[in-house]
Design brief:
The chain is an alpha+beta fold and 107 residues long. The chain has two helices and four strands. A four-stranded mixed sheet has the order 1-2-4-3, with no helix packed on it. The longest helix has 18 residues, at 2-19.
């Protein structure tokens, strides 16, 4: 009887393991950015582009541009580290995050 219970426990745990996504398909939650020292919008080509500045009077500036389907909020791990020694500027590309998406085509 104990052997049967052990087989059932192993089978149940293997079933749960097989149903979970592979590690490469998971993405950890990104920590929220702290409040920027300055933020606003810059008009460019008919779009209003959001930007935020951290450690405004720090060292040389570093600009972080996110990839597709992301926003400036995706830099939650990097901004605190870089802001120790640099002025850090993040922005949302047009049509992403807080930036607008004008009717003009991409070029």
């Amino acid at each position: 009887m104990r052997g049967l219970a052990a087989i059932w426990a192993v089978t149940a745990s293997m079933s749960a393991w097989a149903q979970s996504p592979p590690l490469w398909a998971t993405v950890p939650a990104v920590p929220a950015l702290s409040k920027p020292e300055r933020s606003g919008y810059a008009d460019s080509g008919g779009a209003r582009l959001y930007y935020a500045v951290f450690n405004q009077h720090g060292g040389s500036p570093v600009i972080l541009l996110h990839g597709g389907f992301a926003s400036s909020e995706s830099w939650g791990y990097e901004v605190p580290l870089l802001a120790r020694t640099h002025e850090v500027i993040v922005m949302d590309n047009r049509g992403h995050g807080r930036s607008s998406m004008p009717d003009t085509p991409f070029s």
